[in-house]
Amino acid sequence: MPHSHTQPPEGENAANEQLISKPETSTPLSSSPQTPVPPVEPVRPSTLPWHKAALLLPLLLIVLFHALSLGATQFAGPQGWSSLFGGSGNINNADLLKQIDRQLRATPSNQTTGTQTAITPEQYIDTILRNMPLDAKIGQMMLVQFTGPTYSEDINTMINQYGVGAVLIFSANGNIIDKAQLKSLIKQMQKDSAIPLSIAIDQEGGYVDRLLELDGARPSAATIGATNNTEEARIAGQQDAKDLSAYGINTNLAPVVDVDTLPISEMHSDERTFGTTPEQVTRMAGSYLTGLQASHTVIGTLKHFPGLGRSAIDPHEAIPEITTSREELESIDWAPYRDLIKHNNVQSIMVTHEILTAIDASRPSTLSPKVIKGILRDEFGFQGVIMTDSLTMKAITSYVPQSQAAALAIAAGCDLLMGAASVSQVASMIQGIKQAIQDGTLTEQRINESVRRILLMKYRMGLLSLPKG
């Protein structure tokens, strides 16, 4: 795509501004947000005859006693009380794909040949979309995490009630104990999900080696880069894919394609980059990605756009401000992204939280249409999945509440939202998105665009298969 300095449309800016406010004080959030209901004619109140009320009262007391005895989860099911009182309930339709398969099999056959008309992946995904309620679509946009090594009530609820589309396995959260436990955990999560989950992990090697205790040490990007041998990089990617797929992990949040330009940056000190020049990073990261994705069972994620290689600040703690000129960003920091998007079958890119004064001095890159739409989509022509770095980082939470950050990230062009680590955080983010749709600052069509990309990525990694005729 041609280089563009055009500003986002005035209407888009106005809509996005409506979403921004200072962090609000804590207010209760319902797990099933209110939706507008049409006005109804007032009705005359009626009274229940005393003798009928007397008959109903013991029945109600029995129901209440039974509920208290069993507890909310057993009485109301995994979705909780909302299902009993008109809430969102369980939107994870376990038979969704089977129902769609039956629909497609029932379509008229080719009149001339008597055979079923072949369906394309895009047509199949559009059919899935048409059969998904809004809540299920928003759920697909959630990349969540949870605490502990077992299939806990939290992750059960995230999958069964909210239909989340992706789960992050994180050793710091205690998700990894041993090989058998990890395989069993992932298998249970997939079993309960109507649409197969993206199971993600940060497996970079070196300092960021989440599977160290299970599979032994893997080399860092800096170690691989220092060999200047692209075959070494390809083999490292191939080995990581073999390790991950053995557990059922299908998404690696790697390779890092930040260019190491600042010796005091975290990327440098933790040896997380492949080199100090865009050419070296492009060659080595590209070869690693080729090896990682060769089996078509694991996809990689380029990170951390627009680049942390020149930042001395960790977005976990504060928001970095990059004052580098656009020309230098284009020629150094962004060069690997541009080249890899063109030549290396990139499926996913992670955007981090930093202020680029040359592009958008008012918003973190994760929430900036100028960065995401203007550069990644329009200038680089990237049509794959764009995910956020964690929306729980202080670089974001000091700017806006998490619920608003979710809506702003989508408005900016992000597809997959990382960060929710509890049921309440998932509910908060979903409520923020639905509120933005109610306000007109987001549309369901915009949600459809993201979910279409996510489902197409799942098809490409083998999680979704075309129905057989």
**Low-confidence residue ranges:** 1-15, 21-48, 66-89
**Domains counted in the coordinates: how many?**
2
CATH superfamily of the largest domain: Glycoside hydrolase, family 3, N-terminal domain
Approximate shape: globular
CATH class of the largest domain: Alpha Beta
Q: What is the structural class?
A: alpha/beta
Q: Give the total of beta strands.
A: 13
CATH topology of the largest domain: TIM Barrel
Structural summary, described in words:
The chain is α/β, with parallel strands linked by helices. Strands 7-6-3-2-1-13 form a six-stranded parallel sheet. It folds into two domains: 30 residues, no CATH class; 341 residues, TIM Barrel (Alpha-Beta Barrel), CATH 3.20.20. GO terms for molecular function: hydrolase activity, hydrolyzing O-glycosyl compounds. Keywords: Glycosidase, Hydrolase, Membrane, Transmembrane, Transmembrane helix. One of its GO terms (biological process) is carbohydrate metabolic process. This is Glycoside hydrolase family 3 N-terminal domain-containing protein.
